[in-house]
Amino acid sequence: MALFLTVIMMRYYLLALGCVVLIKAVVGSQGDFCNLECPEFDSVRSTSDYEVRRYSDTKWVSTKVSSMNYGIASMRGFWKLFAYIGGENEAGVKIEMTQPVLIKIPEETSWWLWKEYTVSFMLPREHWDSPPTPTNTDVYIDHMPESTAYVKSYGGWANGWNTNSNRQEVEQKLTEAGETFEDSFYYSAAYNAPFEMTNRHNEVWVMSSNGRK
Fold it and tell me: Which range in 23-37, 138-152, 184-198 is most confidently predicted, on average pLDDT?
């Protein structure tokens, strides 16, 4: 069953990648690392430690997952959302995959504590005005207002350890610079399908104090 689901996910990503030329033609300022439709942002400035981005407001489909493990939470959340874009919505429509898979992570002092993660896919812009209603009550439509993020990029596979490590590095530099930021949560953003072995791109977003809550 796991192999079957992996094959289905691979086929879906490949189909989405086939639409990249059309998507690039209609979407404005999104990063070079985006192969699909991504949130638009303005790069305000960059340091050797992070990039300051100003994101436009966006619509997302989200689900909350309680877990002691980042990897388990991200997997469970991913499949709930993947089912939604695959047609498990009241309109029965299939929705294109976007990037990134965004995970909101509460900050805790102990890594072993249960956390409530929020896993999200950005909805394609064509669905923002009237998003299809989820049939799964665990899945809901969410709005991210315009916000500022301090972003650190890194390669490989995102996991609980490296997301937290990169978050700590960014927050330390922000504290040293006298910047204010949201310290109750942060985001992990993953841009690649699991089967992509090279040129992987991940990010940690530490939000400005006027960012998303």
Answer: 138-152
